[in-house]
Specification:
Strand order of the largest sheet of chain A: 5-4-3-2-7-10
CATH superfamily of the largest domain in chain A: Cupredoxins -  blue copper proteins
Distance between the termini of chain B: 27 Å
Organism (chain B): Frigoriglobus tundricola
Pfam family, one (chain B): COX1
Radius of gyration of chain A: 30 Å
Family (chain B): Belongs to the heme-copper respiratory oxidase family.
Strand content of chain A: 15-25%
Bound molecules: protoporphyrin IX containing FE, copper (II) ion
Number of helices of chain A: 8
Number of domains of chain B: 1
CATH superfamily of chain B: Cytochrome c oxidase-like, subunit I domain
Membrane topology (chain B): Multi-pass membrane protein
CATH topology of the largest domain in chain A: Immunoglobulin-like
Helix content of chain B: 55-70%
Order of helices and strands of chain B: HHHHHHHHHHHHHHHE
Strand content of chain B: under 5%
Radius of gyration of chain B: 24 Å
Helix content of chain A: 25-40%
Largest sheet of chain B: none
CATH architecture of chain B: Up-down Bundle
CATH topology of chain B: Cytochrome C Oxidase, Chain A
Oligomer: heterodimer
Subcellular location (chain B): Membrane
Chain lengths: 366, 587
């Protein structure tokens, strides 16, 4: 048996809604426990006090009491109505998203969640790797959400009913084929939280679990604009700027030299962004956006120590400013072990028309 | 307490001395297997049901064992995901459709309703035996589905999973539930007509035992709600075979429609499961505290209230299924209202004990267990009926714990209370007092250990129907499985001592608990037509324990447990004759 970690007394609260839930939950818990314990005490007292040994054996003929019965009908009814009213208020808030919420679309599918951001970035949350295609597996990541900003999630299911539940936000919603459902959150705490599928959906229902990652608003903006690889996937996810850059990287044949199996001609670029690069002839430079752009436009200007100055320059006609942005985003997102191999054939990621049209031939040089 | 009733308006003066077990009774009147299979005697049919549902209880329990053992480890300890899904479905289907629903109405309702209202049999004896056959045919379908590899949809059978995606034996499983539903309708109809038409002279509605009231309310639901589930089950089968798109959105259907249909039956069905238990408790608590029930009318009418209001709140199972905001508001409000009659009953039961003279034989312990566990189950229902809390707790282990507290903690306890209360009447034998009290204590203890951790897990977000779970839930799951093992032992104990009692038990007198109901007027075990002398004229309410008279106005025999206290031995009676006792009304 593995070591068992204990749960905290109160589960993590990471959204506005969670706070409201807890207040209501504890109100009901305390009031109903008070009543329950009161009844238990009465029961126990009667059971001890009036056990056969303590009594004469004869009992009074008590048939009831209208006054008592009215009391214990009306008082609970009143208390229950307070639960109802408060609960309706919390629910009202939970089901009506504010106007300005960022909208994210999520499709439920046996057994994964496919999320898409407004700018087209896509990521698969959780799911069971055993029944995924290669490209789906590549884009398993986290759902990134901004701190202190409302986000609205709109769901639909591709097959059966699922349910998107996030305990840390005290929220869940069924994900139904044929109709849209919605939920919204305002995360209030940085961190990573479980997403569960709460509606039974078949064999791997219990593996339809994933993570939400709450980041600072600024970081989220950066992520949305396609730079930051916050989703925890292996590769830049489909739809992101970095992903576009990756396709250009293949198309422009940068991969021929900067590949995972170094030809000895050029350095591997993973981990480059933000690092200190020693230059030929002394000095060093931090590899930021400007440095990378410069290295593409005018590669001979600053050559990395230990390498030959053989890289061709790419001008406006070969790489537009826009494309350059994407390539930079890709290089930014490259982390250890994610540079493709030059001889590898890349499967087209799901729903990536650009790639299919351009049919990249990474090994086309051969 | 022994009270010699000398003058009373009743038809008989003093109870006749207990005869030894009458030579001919419903059990020994004939011995062939055919005499059982073709019987139209409501008592024998009750026994047939008892035997069959006991088998399903064991089978359903075995499936639960697989589920709980598998949850010992976060990644599944013993079976594959698929096998797990089939196990919890088998557990749900067997326990709900083939144990809980028939348990009290078909076993004890069949056996005791005619006796309690003073008649020879149910209104339609042949329909009664037919209902058992229908039930068994349904059961055969369900068992066939399980043996052929099982069903993996969960007992709720939500489409489109059940109609499109599931690769399992949905059709035979659904057929089983569909067919057994008719048996439920037949039993309900039979009981209703019997209660209306066949009461003994003097057995007015106000003198009906509360068990009869509870089963009357139950029958109402069985009669009105079961056809709806039958329809929805047929639709599932049609959809699965023909794919015409009733619930399939890709061809214009709506999966949420099924949820409405399903819960329109299945929510009232949870009251089919619990109301009979409440009826049992009213009988037992009064008997073992020697008290009149507190608030007879409130309890009787709250049963009917639950039955009626119970029809109006099915959609509280769908607060997060995309029903409209206003629908959610309405169904939540109605759910709050149905909690009120349940609360009334609990308060009344507790008040009944006030100034009683209580003994603790097994039926009483099971009944107190019912009250204690039902309070937890009922109060936690409020969290689910409250919109703001259901959006987190829905479909988690909190729900699992809630309905087990109500249905296992409540109804199964009620069932065991009934079994222990009426066993001497049904078999003519007493069982071991000590072992039966031990069993009750073990069951209550095991129950808490099993299900309290599930509330905590659900509150922390562990979803139901998961064979795998994050490691931080392991401790509580292990605890729950440990509790389930204790519970399992507790449930096996009665099987042993009750069986032994058939061979070695002391012979039971006609009224071993000194209870007031008419069923205790028959010999134990009863003769073929229940009563030796018909018709009976009922002159008293059902619970005149304070007066020490039964429903015919005759004095009660010595209650059990009195001999513990010399002051209450024969001859040293308490206050004057019962009729001089004043009626007290507190408040
Ligand atoms: C009288 C005895 C009761 C019985 C037999 C009972 C039984 C059940 C059962 C079987 C379920 C689970 C259904 C499923 O598989 O989804 C359930 C859920 C539920 N119960 Fe009860 N219950 C009882 C009392 C109450 C009370 C008093 C309330 C309300 C105050 C209540 C409110 C609910 C709600 C709202 C749900 C749905 C929860 C959800 O799925 O999120 N129950 N009950
Ligand atoms: Cu799912």
């Amino acid at each position: 048996m593995t070591t068992m970690n204990m749960l905290p007394l109160i589960p993590e609260m990471a959204s506005d809604g969670a706070r409201h839930f807890e207040a209501l939950f504890w109100y009901i818990t305390l009031t109903s426990s008070a009543v329950g314990i009161g009844v238990y005490i009465a029961l126990l007292y009667f059971c001890v006090r009036y056990r056969r040994g303590q009594t004469t054996g004869s009992t009074p003929r008590i048939l009831g009491s209208v006054r008592l019965e009215l009391t214990w009908t009306l008082v609970p009814m009143f208390v229950f109505l307070t639960y109802y009213a408060w609960g309706a208020m919390v629910y009202n808030k939970a089901v009506h998203p504010p106007e300005d919420a960022t909208e994210i679309f999520v499709i439920g599918k046996q057994w994964m969640w496919k999320a898409q951001y407004p700018n087209g970035q896509r990521v698969i949350i959780g799911g069971n790797p055993r029944n995924m295609s290669e490209s789906e597996r590549q884009s398993i990541g986290k759902l990134v959400l901004p701190m202190n900003r409302p986000v609205k999630l709109t769901f639909i299911s591709e097959d059966v009913i699922h349910d998107f539940g996030v305990p840390a936000f005290r929220s869940k919603i069924d994900v139904i084929p044929g109709r849209y459902s919605q939920v919204w959150y305002q995360p209030t705490k940085l961190g990573e939280y479980h997403v569960y599928c709460d509606q039974y959906c078949g064999t791997w229902h219990s593996l339809m679990v994933g993570k939400i990652k709450v980041v600072e608003g600024k970081e989220f903006d950066e992520f949305l604009s396609g730079y930051a690889p916050l989703q925890g996937t292996q590769n830049a996810v489909d739809g992101s700027l970095a992903h576009e850059g990756r396709q250009l990287f293949l198309k422009l044949q940068c991969i021929n030299c900067h590949s995972a199996t170094p030809t000895g001609k050029a350095p591997v670029l993973e981990g480059l962004y933000g690092s200190r690069v020693p230059l030929k002839g002394g000095g060093a430079e931090i590899a930021d956006d400007a440095y990378i752009i410069e290295s593409i436009r005018r590669p001979r200007l600053k050559v990395v120590d230990g390498w030959e100055a053989i890289m061709p320059a790419y001008d406006e006609t070969q790489v537009s400013a826009e494309e350059l942005n994407a390539v930079v985003a890709y290089i930014r997102s490259l982390r250890k072990g994610t540079t493709p191999d030059r001889t590898e054939r890349f499967p087209a990621p799901n729903g990536a028309p650009t790639e299919r049209q351009q049919s990249p031939q990474p090994s086309g040089g051969k | 307490m022994s009270i010699a009733v000398t003058s009373h308006s009743g038809p008989a003066a003093a109870p006749p001395p207990e005869p030894p077990t009458p030579p001919v009774n419903y059990l020994n009147v004939s011995h062939t297997i055919w005499s059982w299979l073709f019987t139209v005697d409501h008592k024998r049919i009750g026994i047939l049901y008892l035997v069959s549902i006991s088998i399903f209880f064991v089978a359903g329990g075995a499936a639960a064992g697989i589920v709980r053992l598998n949850l010992l480890q976060p990644d599944g300890a013993i079976v594959s995901e698929d096998a797990y899904n089939r196990a919890f479905t088998a557990h749900g289907v067997l326990m709900l459709f083939f144990f809980l629903i028939p348990a009290v109405p078909a076993v004890f309702g069949n056996f005791f309703i005619p006796m309690m209202i003073g008649t020879k049999d149910l209104a339609f004896p042949k329909l009664n035996i037919a209902s058992w056959y229908v039930f068994m045919i349904g059961a055969v379908c369900a068992v066939w589905a399980v043996l052929a590899g099982g069903i993996d949809t969960g007992w709720t059978l939500y489409p489109p999973y059940s109609t499109r995606a599931s690769q399992s034996n949905v059709i035979p499983g659904v057929m089983g539930a569909f067919i057994s539903g008719f048996s439920s309708i037949m039993t309900g109809l039979n009981i209703m007509v019997t209660v209306h038409k066949m009461r003994a002279p003097g057995m007015t509605w106000g003198r009906l035992p509360l068990f009869v009231w509870a089963l009357y309310a139950t029958s109402l639901i069985q009669l009105l709600a079961t056809p709806v589930v039958a329809i929805s089950l047929v639709l599932i089968m049609v959809e699965r075979v023909a794919g015409i798109g009733i619930f399939d959105p890709t061809i214009g259907g709506d999966p949420v429609l099924f949820q409405h249909l399903f819960w329109f039956y299945s929510h009232p069905a949870v009251y089919i499961m619990i109301l009979p238990g409440m009826g049992v408790i009213s009988e037992v608590l009064t008997c073992f505290s020697r008290k009149n029930i507190f608030g007879y009318h409130a309890i009787a009418w709250s049963s009917v209230g639950i039955a009626v209001v119970g029809f109006l709140l099915w959609a509280h199972h769908m607060f997060v299924a995309g029903i409209s905001f206003y629908a959610a508001l309405l169904f939540s409000l109605l759910s709050m209202l149905v909690a009120v009659p349940s609360a009334i009953k609990v308060f009344n039961w507790v008040a009944t004990l006030y100034r009683g003279s209580i003994t603790y034989q097994a039926p009483m312990l099971f009944s107190l267990g019912f009250v204690v566990l039902f309070i937890v189950g009922g109060l936690t229902g409020l969290f689910l009926a409250t919109l703001g809390t259901d959006i987190h707790l829905h479909d988690t282990y909190f729900v699992v714990a809630h309905f087990h507290f109500v249905m296992v903690g409540g109804m199964v306890m009620g069932y065991f209370a009934a079994l222990h209360f009426w066993w001497p009447k049904m078999t003519g034998r007493m069982y071991s007092d000590w072992w039966s009290r031990m069993a009750a204590a073990i069951i209550i203890f095991g129950f808490f250990i099993t299900f309290i951790p599930q509330f905590v897990m659900g509150y922390h977000g562990m979803p139901r129907r998961y064979p795998n779970y994050p490691a931080e839930f392991q401790f509580l799951n292990v605890m729950s499985t440990a509790g389930a093992s204790i519970l399992g032992i507790g449930y096996l104990m009665p099987a042993v001592y009750l069986t032994l009692s058939l061979f070695f038990g002391k012979r039971a007198t006609a009224n071993p608990w000194s209870a007031t109901g008419l069923e205790w007027q028959c010999p134990s075990p009863p003769v073929v037509h229940n009563f030796e002398h018909m018709p009976l004229v009922v002159v008293c309410g059902p619970y005149e324990y304070a007066l020490g008279v039964d429903q015919l106005g005759r004095g009660l025999p010595e209650p059990p447990g009195s001999q513990d206290d010399p002051a209450h031995r024969d001859g040293v009676t308490g206050p004057a004759g019962p009729m001089h006792k004043e009626t007290e009304v507190v408040g």
